[in-house]
UniProtKB/TrEMBL annotation:
Record bears the keyword Hydrolase: yes
UniProt name for this protein: ANAG acetylglucosaminidase
Domain Alpha-N-acetylglucosaminidase C-terminal stretches: 255-513
Alphabetical UniProt keywords: Hydrolase
Superkingdom in the source lineage: Eukaryota
InterPro entries in UniProt: Hex-like_dom2 (IPR029018), NAGLU (IPR007781), NAGLU_C (IPR024732), NAGLU_N (IPR024240), NAGLU_tim-barrel (IPR024733)
Start and end residues of each Alpha-N-acetylglucosaminidase N-terminal domain: 7-66
Annotated Gene3D superfamilies: Chitobiase/beta-hexosaminidase domain 2-like (3.30.379.10), Glycosidases (3.20.20.80), N-acetyl-b-d-glucoasminidase (1.20.120.670)
A Pfam family that the UniProt record links to this protein: NAGLU
Domain Alpha-N-acetylglucosaminidase tim-barrel: 81-177
Keyword Membrane: no
């Protein structure tokens, strides 16, 4: 229930209690609808062992529902829990229908988020304004970008690209619908471009909001999430959302152990140990986070790529081993399978960097046999195996991204335009690779037919250079590989939108081949 008086004019508050008698296990009351939803998730999370995230839900309720020994009352330390970045609209939400938005809004409410922008449909309003100012439709069409690039059109730094916006787009969107003395919201900007890649700054987010709130004369009014893209690194977002209701930092190792149990629906020592390893390494960048989401795997190959990382890669390999060992017990959990794909993918990403270093070293040493060996393993085995792994899970499929774009269309012509938008955004990002690979994704189909083809061309160019005795020219390679990249954008190949293969089997096969 909602009782505004519960907050007494202050920040959101929720109350959990078990009324006398057996009829009701728990009564959840909030000062607002969002506060009540946050209280409900607190009960589900901490007392029922449930878990809800972008990658899946584990909602097996105990029977009977647990009763509370004492009343729990929690008041948020700030007025707001903010969510979204202007770019999230294009990198993640662009092809969403109401069913997907409804799930997201439920997640937002249960996470306690009470402040979020609503950009949908504004182009229809602007179109009416522009017409009232005397612009004709062709002038307006030349201004609006295609759907996948509207975030930057709205920010004023892009116009026309991948447009125009069909009339049906406007209609569908309408249906959806610290500075001195200035109040501010402490926000976590965690993701750029909707990239895949394990990453976090857990110590910073566990302490930063509390330090900012304690600062003399602090004007902080809340916490927030501002990722450019979502549906990645669920743990970091669950942590940040919980901190929006806390008065002090958490004990992170204990928290992540309980998180693993909730996420998979059962305790497992190996899975918990894996998460503690990830927490202290890849999820705990404390300095300059070099090459965050910029692995050589997803970059246009060159001889000058940096492979330095902010964490000990052996921790990810060991977490991979531990998760695989938990597969017999947890393999039926959808969120476990998602995490196994994600951690295996991260390990494979690290391996790609190692093979790249071997390729570069062999080329610079004029060691053709070593170049052929390292390049052959990378192009003909590791990348295809990684593509098979990603293709085993619905959330790592290029076909799902492309089909969701086509599904928004009301005609074949629109479907082709929207697919072009979707392909271009995750690859060239613009007509000429203007911010090439900024929105890179590691998806089944994309790894093999885009990144894999680029790497094959790169290795072939290096081999040809050694065989002919002529120098390797990066500018010439860039011109050649651009044709491959552009060809992928305009290719009409259809990709499956349903997964194929068993994640556990494929991950185990990769492990037996490549575990260092």
């Amino acid at each position: 229930s909602v009782e505004p008086a519960l907050a007494a004019g202050g920040p959101d508050t929720y109350r959990l209690l078990s009324p006398p008698g057996a009829a009701v296990a728990v009564a959840v009351t909030g000062s607002s609808g969002v506060a009540a939803a946050a209280g409900l998730y607190r009960y589900l999370r901490d007392f029922c062992g449930c878990h809800l995230s972008w990658s899946g839900a584990q909602l097996r309720l105990p029977d009977p529902l647990p009763r509370l020994r004492t009343e729990i009352r929690v008041t948020a330390p700030g007025r707001y829990r903010y969510y979204q970045n202007a770019c999230t609209q294009s990198y993640s939400y662009v092809w969403w229908d109401w069913a997907r938005w409804e799930r997201e809004i439920d997640w937002m409410a249960l996470s306690g988020i009470n402040l979020a922008p609503a950009f949908a449909g504004q182009e229809a309003a602007w179109q009416r304004v522009y017409r009232s100012l005397g612009l004709n439709q062709s002038e307006i069409d030349a201004y609006f970008t295609g759907p996948a690039f509207l975030a930057w059109n709205r920010m004023g730094n892009l116009r026309g690209w991948a447009g125009p916006l069909p009339p049906a787009w406007h209609l569908k969107q309408l249906y959806l619908q610290s500075f001195y003395g200035q109040p501010f919201i402490w926000c976590m900007l965690h993701n750029f471009g909707g990239n895949h890649g394990l990453f976090g700054t857990v110590e910073a987010i566990n302490r930063g909001p509390f330090a900012a709130r304690r600062f003399p004369n602090s004007t902080m009014v809340g916490t927030g999430l501002v990722p450019e893209g979502i549906e990645q690194n669920d743990m970091v977002y669950e942590l940040m959302n919980e901190l929006g209701w806390r008065q002090e930092p958490l004990d992170l190792p204990s928290w992540v152990t309980r998180y693993a149990e909730r996420r998979y629906g059962a305790p497992n020592a190996a899975a918990a140990a894996a998460w503690r390893l990830l927490l202290r390494s890849v999820y705990n960048c404390t300095g300059v986070c070099v090459n965050h989401n910029r692995s050589p795997l997803v970059r246009r190959p060159s001889l000058r790529m940096d492979t330095e990382l902010w964490y000990n890669t052996s921790d990810v390999y060991e977490a991979w081993r531990l998760l695989l060992s938990a597969g017999a017990e947890l393999g039926a959990s959808p969120t476990f399978r998602y995490d196994l794909v994600d951690v295996t993918r991260q390990a494979a990403q690290q391996l790609v960097s190692d093979y790249y270093v071997s390729i570069r070293r062999a080329f610079q040493s004029h060691a053709l046999p070593e170049l052929l060996t390292a390049g052959g393993v990378l192009v003909y085995d590791l990348l295809p195996e990684l593509d098979n792994l990603l293709s085993s899970h619905s959330l790592f499929l290029l076909g799902r991204w492309l089909e969701s774009a086509r599904a928004v269309a009301t005609s074949d012509q629109e479907a082709e335009q929207y697919e072009l938008n979707a392909r271009n955004q995750v690859t060239l990002w613009g007509p000429n690779g203007n911010i090439l690979d900024y929105a890179n994704k590691q998806l089944g189909g994309l790894v093999l037919d885009y990144y894999g083809v680029r790497w094959s061309l790169f290795v072939s160019a290096l081999v040809e250079s050694l065989n002919s005795g002529s120098p390797f020219h990066q500018d010439q390679f860039n011109q050649a590989v651009f044709q491959v990249e552009r060809g992928f954008v305009y290719n009409k190949k259809r990709y499956p939108a349903a997964p194929a293969g068993d994640t556990l089997d494929i991950s185990r096969k990769l492990f037996l081949k490549y575990y260092p």
